[in-house]
Amino acid sequence: MNAIxxxxxWGIAVVLAVAIGSVIQTQFNLAExxxxxxxxxxKARMATTWxxxxxxxxxxxxxxxxxFAVAWPVAGWLKRWxxxxxxxxxxxxxxxxxxxxxxVMNRSLPITAIGAxxxxxxxxxxxxxxxxxxxxxxxxxxDR
Length: 144
Hints:
Blueprint: H1 3-35, H2 42-55, H3 57-78, H4 86-108, H5 120-141
Helix pairs in contact: 1-2, 1-3, 1-5, 3-4, 4-5
């Protein structure tokens, strides 16, 4: 497998997980505000989502990039013993990378840094974005 494909695939996977994760966390935050009785229209939702894509994603991208930089080699190592299961392994690696990253953050910081992760469903959805990114990675790097 060529190194350019691996780096490109990793970069695209990071961008996907971060963009999807940012939208998820924004909508969770807006849902919490709505639950307090504030009306939030579509225009405000779109503006807030765009704002978060510009402001939340840089730090989140660094964290996801590091998480994937740890998870991808582990998945690559496991594929030696489970040949033919690359999509499954990297999908699970993407899910696990985000899940562990969130768990470490939530346990080591004095606050919950990503509001969506206060609830299990938010954590699962962010990790699912990582799983999707892992699957996309395999589609990019596979030899066809």
